Amino acid sequence: MRVETSVRDDIITVRLFLQHDMAMQAGCVADSAQAVFIRELSVRYRGEKVFTADLSPALSADPFLRFRFRGTGGGTLAISWNDSQGADGAYSHEIA
Questions:
Q1: Domain CATH number, residue 46
Q2: If we measure between CA atoms, which residue out of 68, 61, 63 comes closest to residue 12?
Q3: Which terminus of the chain has fewer CB atoms gathered within 10 Å of its CB, N or C?
Q4: Any idea what the Cα angle at residue 80 is, between residues 32 and 77, rounded to 5°?
Q5: Which pLDDT score, from 0 to 100, does residue 9 have?
Q6: φ, ψ for residue 8 (rounded to 5)?
Q7: For residue 26, is pLDDT > 70?
Q8: What is the pLDDT confidence band of residue 58, given thresholds at 50, 70 and 90?
Q9: How many angstroms separate the CA atoms of 96 and 80, rounded?
């Protein structure tokens, strides 16, 4: 995972570059029971949830997400996710 952040006028912009295959077994959404994809992504800032997404097999491999929220800068982003095969992951990023 790669995370880039910027702060301007108390608005924090987050760019997430997720490294995940998001692989479909047969190449179509109808086979989503066999697909390996990130199911849920959650981002917390200073303990408060600022972003959540329920993803699907329709997303491309190594997806890029961008979102904004109000914050003063400084602090830690706590990023967590789980995928369709039951694997969990977590990552933290310090905002300067």
A1: 2.60.40.10
A2: 68
A3: C
A4: 140
A5: 92
A6: -150, 125
A7: no
A8: confident
A9: 20
Three-state SS sequence of the chain: CEEEEEEECCEEEEEEECCCCCECCCCCHHHHHHCECEEEEEEEECCEEEEEEECCCCCCCCCEEEEEEECCCCCEEEEEEEECCCCEEEEEEECC
Instruction: Give how far the C-alpha of residue 42 lies from the chain's centroid of Cα atoms, to the nearest Å.
Output: 6
Residue 69: both structure tokens together: 């929220």
Number of domains in the chain: 1
User: Which strands form 88-94's sheet, in the order they lie side by side?
Assistant: 48-54, 38-45, 76-83, 88-94
Measure the CA–CA gap between 96 and 34, rounded to whole angstroms.
40
What's the CA gap between 38 and 33, in Å, rounded?
Answer: 13
Backbone angles phi, psi at 84, to 5 degrees: -70, -10
Residue 44 lies in domain: 2-94
Around Cβ 1, how many Cβ atoms within 10 Å?
13
